[in-house]
Amino acid sequence: MRLKVLGAYGASDAEHNLTGYLIDDWLAVDAGTLTSKLSFAQQARIQAVFITHPHADHIRDLPHLIHNRFSQNAAALTVFASKEVMQLLTDNVFNGIVWPDFSKLISPLTKAPAVIYRPMAPGKKVMFNEVGLTAVNVHHQIPAAGVIVEMNGQAITFTGDTGPTSEIWKRTNKTPNVVAVVTEASFPNDQQSLADETAHLSPNTFGDELKKITVDAPVYASHRKIPFERDIESQIRNLRDRRARVLLEKNYTL
Ligand SMILES: [Zn+2]
Ligand SMILES: [Zn+2]
């Protein structure tokens, strides 16, 4: 599968972008960066987006993706998230105040709503276009779930933001042909207490998580905070595990 990393940072400036991934041009994971890096036509090809949690850096472009879809002659966008995360999104974002609830508005072009919400039961695989999506809860400050994507005989795990966790590793270890794991390392090792307090990982705790992962695939650290990106990168390298990598904003072929 092709993984286009549109945003691989936990902060943004002119050269660094918020979390946003696109698989084979039609399935997105998180929406910190989607519309801001994709043409109108590329956005219309996105059929579904999985949202890990409602923190602003993971949903910044979602209202705009939905709004654009409303004026495109394209199939509805399906938004996947765990039940709890979906509830937070509809209560706090698509609530008619921060943004309209486009699932209730009829698009003049398609005569149908531009968005469909699909809340998921954690741990239960859902099929969409012959792709398996399994939401698995992780440990963050607010309800959050990563996702295991199974497509064309390959699998990739995205944790989204998380502190030390276990369930998603157990599920990943049992999933056939995992070709990549995308998790995080937000803060450098000398900010371990901040990482712990905010339920994020540092390279040290990323290293502890690596020990729980038995699959032989690259494990990428995303969501680096901009001022510390070089420190985090060298600390990841110092783990001396050949699977450990930092995620870059580029296209990967897996
Ligand atoms: Zn984040
Ligand atoms: Zn977060």
Structure, briefly:
With 254 residues, this protein is of the alpha/beta class. The chain contains eight helices and 14 strands.
Coarse shape: globular
Number of strand segments: 14
Q: Secondary-structure element sequence?
A: EEEHEHHEHEEEEEHEHHEHEE
Strand content: 25-35%
Q: What is the CA-CA span between the terminal residues?
A: 5 Å
Structural class by helix and strand composition: alpha/beta
Structure notes:
The protein has 254 residues and is an alpha/beta fold. The protein has helices at residues 40-44, 56-59, 62-70, 83-92, 167-174, 192-197, 203-212, 229-237, and strands at residues 2-7, 20-23, 27-31, 48-50, 77-82, 115-120, 125-128, 131-137, 145-151, 154-158, 178-184, 219-222, 244-246, 251-253. The strands form 2 sheets. It has a 7-stranded mixed beta sheet with strand order 6-5-4-3-2-1-14. A 7-stranded mixed beta sheet has the order 7-8-9-10-11-12-13, with helices on one face. Helix 7 (203-212) packs across helix 8. The longest helix is centred in the middle third of the chain and has 10 residues, at 83-92. One zinc ion binds at residues 10, 55, 57-58, 161, 223.
Task: Give the SSE map.
Elements: E1 2-7, E2 20-23, E3 27-31, H1 40-44, E4 48-50, H2 56-59, H3 62-70, E5 77-82, H4 83-92, E6 115-120, E7 125-128, E8 131-137, E9 145-151, E10 154-158, H5 167-174, E11 178-184, H6 192-197, H7 203-212, E12 219-222, H8 229-237, E13 244-246, E14 251-253
Parallel strand pairs: 3-4, 4-5, 5-6, 10-11, 11-12, 12-13
Antiparallel strand pairs: 1-2, 1-14, 2-3, 7-8, 8-9, 9-10
Bound molecules: zinc ion (2 copies).
The site of one zinc ion has 6 residues, from helix 2.
